[in-house]
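Run log, item B.
One chain of 274 residues. Sequence copied directly from the ordering sheet:
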Amino acid sequence: MADYHKLACMIATHGEAAIFRRFDTLNIKNLLYMQAELVHLEAELRQIELEEKSSADPNRTAYPFSVYDLRESACSGKVTQWTKYLEIQSKLQAYSMCYKQLHRKDGALLQYLALRKVAKPSSNAVEVLQGWLDRPEGGDFFLKGREAYTWEMEKDLVSLNEQQPGQDGLTKLINEKLVPWYHRRWGHRTQKPSLTAESYGVWQYDQEKLNLLANAISTLLASLLPSISILVLYLLSRPVTKLVAILWFSVFFSLVLSAVSTARRIEIFAATTA
């Protein structure tokens, strides 16, 4: 019988299915509420400061110049600058950052900033997860009510699958476009799906073999492009035609370089002009 335990086992087995909601709207609303609360607390603190500064009590007028006196005022049992500051401090730490047991803990702002940097899942990974949830031998529609639509909001999804560092555009193209196309055409007939209980019916392709394919294509292009360009320029006789051919080969070279490498734009520009 399908349940959350079976879903968790499937995700643990197939890391690309580690897809979760980011809850953008709720996170932003949380920040707005905390910000509004701090705005009011800031105004209240300023009002208390003005009252104590104009007070006839010499102890209260000393607060702006002595943190010790300010801290001791909390013992009076009244709302003072220090008690209001302590209230603001806890809210401000939650809003920006706080520290607990000497370990740095990000507050709401930095947490949301970090969340925005988490990569989005590929459409293929979302389809795999949704397909597993719908198949009788997989999730078998065990999610009910609103929970059944958790993975329908693709714009709000993030992937916790550890991305390969420096993955180039060609490898991404093979993983996200070529493999799904191949699987729909022929792969589902030749590739054997997983038969384990938690991931029954999930097809998985060897990433190392896909990387070898990407490397082979890159090596082939690196060998052919200079040779083809030299051959074409040799066959052309008119100078203007040669210049046009050089222009198109330069454009094609820069496009291929951006696709098969992780080079930055300035590095591609330098390689093309060289």
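Observations after the first pass:
- Residues 98-104 have pLDDT under 50 and may be disordered.
- The longest helix spans residues 24-53.
Flagged for discussion on Thursday.
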